[in-house]
Write a structure and sequence with these properties.
341 residues, two-stranded antiparallel ribbon, 9 helices, 10 strands
Length: 341
């Protein structure tokens, strides 16, 4: 009989079987970050779901028809919405890709809440969070990015804002960076970071998409695309540049089972003696059923031997076995004494 069988994940089932691209796009207001996100719905990678912390997705063409946009009214709702989409009832929507628009709005709201709490606690209107408080806040913020960029297993685009060119470097030099994620933090979770800007090229104003940070061999830092660029253009470039074996559209087939059944060693379950077995054993060794009835009354206060429990029967069996062994030992001693005489 097998006991305590359980399933464990087969590590070989986790070999990548589908390609995906996780991007962060940064830029000032009005450069087209939200429209780039909308282009994911036309990239052939499945239905798009946008987590809209700025509540501007209502302005995008195709919202509610070609893709879903979930307005996040309170900052604490965002982790719940993401969990709903990738682990909860939202899985039934069969989303193929996700976007967060924008990280800056969510981060700003959460960071402001923490500063307000610190100032209310200390009574100092100019108080700033300690390093320990910033570290605790960082863990909460990281959980959002981790769920979206890693746990979802889908293509993801996260938009961020650049308030003023050079402002971040100035802050780093003046006060240091206690919490790297106040600048963005997205570089820890994305494959490539793109900066979008409007520049004059050949006498015309055009959008420039420049790679500023990259973990992908397909995109070198400094690589640019210009013009009316969408998410599909980056996917196509990635396909051609690397001649990828893994497809974006659907995972490759695998003959490896996802789980391994872990089995404990076989255990032998002892046979349980019945009252009939006990009677037969007693009679085979010169006892009577009446002897068992007597023993049941004395040792277990039970006059009906057919009402004895398995433990009580086992106890009487031990007692009868002991008497049988004692009788056999006595029988061996008597002939020995007689021979000696």
């Amino acid at each position: 009989m097998l006991k305590n069988s359980k399933l464990k994940v087969n590590p070989l089932s986790r070999i990548p079987r589908q390609q995906r691209l996780v991007m962060a796009i940064r830029g000032g207001a009005g450069v087209g970050k939200s429209h780039f996100i909308r282009s994911m719905s036309e990239a052939g990678i499945g239905k798009l779901c946008i987590f809209d912390t700025e509540r501007k997705a209502r302005l995008l063409r195709g919202v509610g028809v070609g893709f879903d946009a979930l307005e996040v009214e309170e900052s604490d709702e965002l982790p719940e919405f993401i969990d709903w989409a990738i682990n909860g009832e939202g899985v039934e929507q069969n989303y193929g890709c996700f976007a967060l628009d924008s990280w800056a709005a969510y981060f700003g709201a959460k960071h402001s809440e923490m500063i307000e709490a610190v100032r209310e606690k200390t009574g100092d209107p100019l108080a700033q969070p300690s390093a320990e408080e910033l570290a605790a806040d960082q863990m909460i913020l990281q959980s959002v990015l981790r769920k979206l960029c890693i746990e979802s297993g889908k293509c993801v685009v996260i938009s961020d804002q650049i308030a003023a060119k050079g402002k971040e470097a100035k802050e780093d030099n003046e006060i240091g960076r206690v919490l790297p994620m106040t600048a963005s933090g997205l570089e820890y979770f994305v494959d490539v970071m793109i900066e979008i800007s409007l520049q004059e090229r050949d006498g015309e104003i055009t959008r420039v998409f420049q790679v500023v940070k990259s973990n992908s061999p397909a995109f070198e830092v400094g690589f640019e695309m210009t013009g009316n660029i969408g998410f599909k253009d980056f996917l196509d470039y990635m396909r051609g540049e690397q001649a990828l074996e893994l497809a974006f559209e659907k995972p490759a087939k695998s003959d490896v089972p996802e789980f391994i059944e872990e089995k404990t060693p076989l255990t032998i379950v002892p046979n349980t003696m019945t009252i009939e077995d006990l009677i037969a054993k007693a009679e085979a060794n010169g006892f009577k059923q009446a002897d068992i009835v007597t023993g049941a009354k004395i040792y277990h206060n039970q006059s009906n031997i057919y009402h004895l429990t398995s433990d009580q029967i086992a106890d009487l069996d031990r007692r009868i076995t002991a008497r049988i062994e004692k009788m056999n030992a006595t029988a061996e001693i008597k002939p020995a004494k007689k021979k000696a005489a």
